[in-house]
Amino acid sequence: MATAGWMPTSAAERVDLLLVLAADISRSVDEAKFQFQRSGYAAAFSNRRVIEAIRGGPSRRIAVAFVEWSGPLSQKTVIDWTVIGDEEAAYRFSDRIVEAPRAFANSTSISAGIEFAVTQLDRAPYEAHRRVIDVSGDGDNNAGRNVAAARDEAISKSVTINGLVILTELPSLSYSTHTNPPGGLANYYRRNVIGGPGAFVVVAENFNSFGNAIIKKLIAEIAQPAGINPAARARY
Q1: Residue 23 in contact with residue 136, Cβ under 8 Å?
Q2: Pairing between strand 62-69 and 75-84?
Q3: Three-state helix/strand/coil letters over the chain
Q4: What is the Cα–Cα distance from 92 to 84, expressed in whole angstroms?
Q5: By the 8 A CB rule, do 114 and 151 touch?
Q6: Cβ–Cβ contacts within 10 Å for residue 123, how many?
Q7: What is the pLDDT of residues 74-118, one digit of tens each?
Q8: What is the mean pLDDT of the chain?
Q9: What are the two backbone dihedrals, phi and then psi, of residue 42, each rounded to the nearest 5 degrees?
Q10: End-to-end CA distance of the chain
Q11: Which of 19, 51, 52, 183 meets the CB 3.0–4.6 Å disulfide criterion with 187?
């Protein structure tokens, strides 16, 4: 495990937050769920409250990358690092999320998704004191290395991982234990996925409510660097 913390380069442009949105698009995420997830992210970045939160920071801008992940060898940067500091930039980012084609649809390796997201943070051409990975998913880690080990390595590099859990209303025979692990998926994320200062889990009851959940979560991540927004603990 790496022990040295991450140090930003002095020449890079300053932003208030480096944020990787890491979206699960494994087999359990069918086409309808995929569209709900994509639409939710897109709507969040065109939301007035999110834009106000971005503009409220010291640098008045953040840098965001959008990645999708599935199996151990299936990760893709859908939208590379983009600075968002005003409505125009936020709307452009939102449009690009909607327009991009789906990357994968196989097993669920949260651990590989975290590792890939950390790599994107390490190569970011911007400087920020806060580095956050926003993992969204509807199931547990069922491929690749141990997810808690990947989480711990990310934390050792001064990364915070937050979770957005999308619950499956009616467990299917194919994915029952995957989408509904013992103790529930939210508790699974709390034990194995999230970590770092102020890390938290937001629960979306289903993919229809994903949009509201991601708005609340983004505002908490952008505007509450020193603690957890109490609203982020709610279920949406």
Answers
A1: yes
A2: antiparallel
A3: CCCCCCCCCCCCEECCCEEEEEEECCCCCCHHHHHHHHHHHHHHHCCHHHHHHHHCCCCCCEEEEEEEECCCCCEEEEEEEEEECCHHHHHHHHHHHHHCCCCCCCCCCHHHHHHHHHHHHHCCCEECCCEEEEEEECCCCCCCCCHHHHHHHHHHCCCEEEEEEECCCCCCCCCHHHHCCCCCHHHHHHHHCCECCCCCEEEECCHHHHHHHHHHHHHHHHHCCCCCCHHHHCEC
A4: 9
A5: yes
A6: 11
A7: 999 999 999 999 999 999 999 999 999 887 778 899 999 999 999
A8: 86
A9: -60, -45
A10: 36
A11: 183
* pTM given for the model: 0.88
CA distance 176 to 228: 31
Q: At what angle do helices 87-99 and 48-55 cross, to 10 degrees?
A: 130
**∠ at Cα 124 (116, 21), nearest 5°?**
50
What the block records as the tokens of 52 is 């106000």
